[in-house]
TrEMBL record:
It comes from Marinobacter vinifirmus. Belongs to the membrane fusion protein (MFP) (TC 8.A.1) family. Gene3D superfamilies: 2.40.30.170, 2.40.420.20, 2.40.50.100, Helix hairpin bin (1.10.287.470). Residues 100-167 form the Multidrug resistance protein MdtA-like alpha-helical hairpin domain. The lineage of its organism: Bacteria, Pseudomonadati, Pseudomonadota, Gammaproteobacteria, Pseudomonadales. NCBIfam families: RND_mfp. Residues 98-163 form a coiled coil. This is Efflux transporter periplasmic adaptor subunit. The keyword Cell membrane does not apply. PANTHER family: MULTIDRUG RESISTANCE PROTEIN MDTA, RESISTANCE-NODULATION-CELL DIVISION (RND) EFFLUX MEMBRANE FUSION PROTEIN-RELATED. The keyword Zinc does not apply. Pfam families: HH_MFP_RND. Keywords: Coiled coil, Signal.
Length: 350
């Protein structure tokens, strides 16, 4: 009898444990809410690059004659006006050469004056038949040779005066000195670059594009005040850079230019890519990067499904993606890191 009572109590205890292990229906977690948004088509694709502000004309400054630099009147970053003195050579030898050329010219002019007077006198004597025609012809040749000597000496004198003027290098146009290479006391040759003068009246942005990319024709430079300056492609290098394998492109900048844009400064450039396929604009929170590629979660019939996408551009709040999906399709906007394929959700449209 005691055995049967013990067995009955054990069965009651076991039955109570099984009932307590089952979860009541009301204790199961509810289907979560998710905030969704509809896909919207994005505008033209833009790529962001770093560019350097350059002058449209960056002219190396050089002497037309060789010599030793006596003075330097400029520093890097200095603005100069047309006609400002940049460098000056030691002109002692040039002055001596110019004085010698002037003396040679005076001597040739004196010789021409003597030959001219003698020819005139002999012509009078020929008229009186005191001298022969052969003597007159000889004097005419001598006078012609003396005149030629004057022309030669005059040209050499002009050349020496020009060389003396070349001892001072002046700015041909207004601009900013971006680089100074030489120092006083240095001997320089003809055409050797001494400095670089960039004309800041026409600014350009120099951008290095990756190899194989089609250079966009247009774009813009965003300014700190929210404005945008349009840029247009002016030239593209004929060959890739040997080291970086990138292509140098120059984009002309439409003025007027704000004071914040200075030569040599680095700016952000947005270049508009030609649309080949449709792209979409989604919130940053809609991107899920747990997989091998970025993905978004589609909501259909109360369930979520992941879809791999290509990220084209990232902004502060939105991303531009490319995927085989139609616009107006609802996707999850927040909490994508908590989702699993086939998970049941309830939409809370934004």
């Amino acid at each position: 009898m005691r055995f049967l009572l013990t067995l009955f109590i054990s069965l009651l205890i076991l039955s109570g444990c099984q009932q307590s292990a089952e979860t009541p229906p009301e204790a199961r977690p509810p289907v979560p809410w998710v905030k969704t948004v509809e896909l919207k088509e994005a505008g033209p694709t833009s790529q962001r690059f770093s560019g350097t502000l350059r002058g449209r004309h960056e002219v190396p400054q050089a002497f037309q004659i060789a010599g030793r630099i006596q003075q330097r009147f400029i520093d890097p970053g200095q603005r100069v006006e047309k006609g400002d003195l940049l460098f000056k050579l030691d002109s002692r030898d040039l002055i001596a050469t110019a004085e010698g050329a002037a003396a040679d010219l005076r001597r040739a002019e004196a010789a021409l004056a003597i030959a001219t007077n003698e020819l005139q006198r002999q012509r009078e004597l020929v008229g009186r038949q005191f001298v022969s025609e052969q003597t007159l012809q000889r004097l005419e040749l001598a006078e012609r040779e003396a005149r030629s000597q004057v022309e030669t000496a005059s040209a050499r004198n002009q050349q020496a005066q020009n060389a003396l003027g070349y001892a001072e290098l002046k700015a041909a146009n207004a601009g900013v000195i971006t680089e100074v290479i030489v120092e006083p006391g240095q001997v320089v040759g003809v055409g050797q670059t001494l400095a670089v003068l960039a004309e800041d009246q026409s600014l350009e942005v120099e951008v290095f594009l990756p190899q194989g990319s089609n250079p966009p024709r247009q774009g813009y430079v965003p300014l700190p005040n929210g404005e945008q300056l349009a840029v247009n492609l002016r030239e593209i290098a004929g060959a890739a850079d040997a080291r970086s394998r990138s292509w140098r492109a120059r984009y002309s900048l439409e003025g007027p230019y704000p004071s914040s844009l200075t030569l040599g400064s680095v700016v952000s450039v947005r270049l508009m890519q030609k649309q080949t396929t449709a792209s979409h604009r989604v919130p940053l929170g809609a991107l899920d990067e747990r997989g091998e590629t970025p993905q978004v979660w589609l909501v259909s019939d109360g369930m979520v499904t992941p879809l791999a996408v290509e990220v084209i551009d990232l902004g502060e709040e939105y991303a531009q993606i490319r995927a085989n999906i139609n616009a107006t399709t609802p996707i999850v906007a927040l909490g994508t890191h908590l989702l699993t394929p086939g998970m049941a959700v309830r939409e809370l449209a934004q």
